[in-house]
Amino acid sequence: MAQARSFKHNPECAFQFKPNFKAKFKVKSRETSNQRRDLCANQTIIGHLIQLSAKLSLLIGAALVVCGFGAEADPGTLPPSITTAPLSVQQVVSNLVRKDAERARALRHYESTRIYHLSYRGFPSDRDAEMTVEASFDSPSTKNFKIISQSGSKLIIERVFKRLLESEKEAAEPEIHARTLLNPENYDIALVGYEPSGAGGQYVLDVYPKAKSKYVYRGKVWVDGTDFAVTRIDAEPAQNPSFWTKKSEIHHQYVKVQNFWLPQRNESVSYIRLGGRATLTIDYNNYHVVDSQVAGKAGIRRPAQPYATEIY
Questions:
Q1: What pLDDT, on the 0 to 100 scale, is given for residue 21?
Q2: 19 inside domain
Q3: 20 assigned to some structural domain
């Protein structure tokens, strides 16, 4: 008898072959078995995407507040892009902390429109879905979402997009927020480059987790040399989010809105062991920001937690 085969993460999808098929095995039965196998494979892949999406809302977390410093290198061995940097890594992070505190005190409320899109290409079939959401934030930690439209794969909409929204609301809670901060206990940081420009330049930092977990990452962070805010992140999870993933890449860009640097576009690409590729993108548009001056005129007073460099 052929042994039963099942996909590890979905026991309900287990299927098996009966002995002595011969002529009694009908075409319809074969089609049913194939459909069940494809469904199992799809649910396995979607299950991985759910894990990755949920971790994205916690991965880089809420803020770049304080970073541990790597050992100082011999200046003679450093590339020109570092030796010509106006500030040291300690000075960059010190300014980042100070500016983050200022932005945290000032940011009271913002609204934006988001477009979520997930595209999967590979075994056993291609899938796409898109969802448009109105998002709002109120200091210190309240987020609300309203779904405007949705199309495509219902499985992706229900089990990826909606769970991603739920996980983002949970990640905004102060208890989880505190655990996702980049701080000396979790990370080391090194200055690896400086990109001069007429607008003040960009400091390029390498960030390394001191211990692997599903909430931390390793990669590069770009810090604006004038505002000392994070403008870009290229990274990967420090811990593989799933056995089914060969590699994951995370790319985030930020845009200045009034005095704040807020998410502009997030892209996460996962390469699946079965031969597929999943790309999750989030585009942010139509920002409306309320700072402390406007809130003060309206009589609004809210405490602020550390300024957030979000990846959602």
A1: 41
A2: no
A3: no
Q: Report yes or no: 52 and 245 within 8 Å, Cβ to Cβ.
A: yes
- Residues paired with residue 116 on neighbouring β-strands, in sequence order: 131, 282
DSSP string, 16-75: -PPS--GGG--HHHHHHHHHHHHHHHHHHHHHHHHHHHHHHHHHS-S-B---EEPPPPPG
Distance CA 39, CA 284 (A): 33
**Is 14 inside a domain boundary?**
no
Quote the domain boundaries for residue 287: 46-297
> What pLDDT digit, counting tens, does each position of 39-94 carry?
454 555 555 555 555 455 444 333 333 334 554 445 556 677 788 889 998 898 88
* Rounded CA separation 287/14 (Å): 47
What's the structural domain count of the chain?
1
Please, what is the average pLDDT of the chain? 74
| Whole-number Å distance between alpha carbons of 277 and 258 | 37
**119 located within any domain:** yes
Minimal CA–CA distance to 93: which of 64, 117, 119? Answer: 64
Query: What's the start-to-end Cα distance of the chain, in Å?
Result: 49
Decide: 224 and 202 in contact? Cβ < 8 Å: yes
Between CA 89 and CA 187 the distance in angstroms is 14
Provide the residue count of the chain: 312
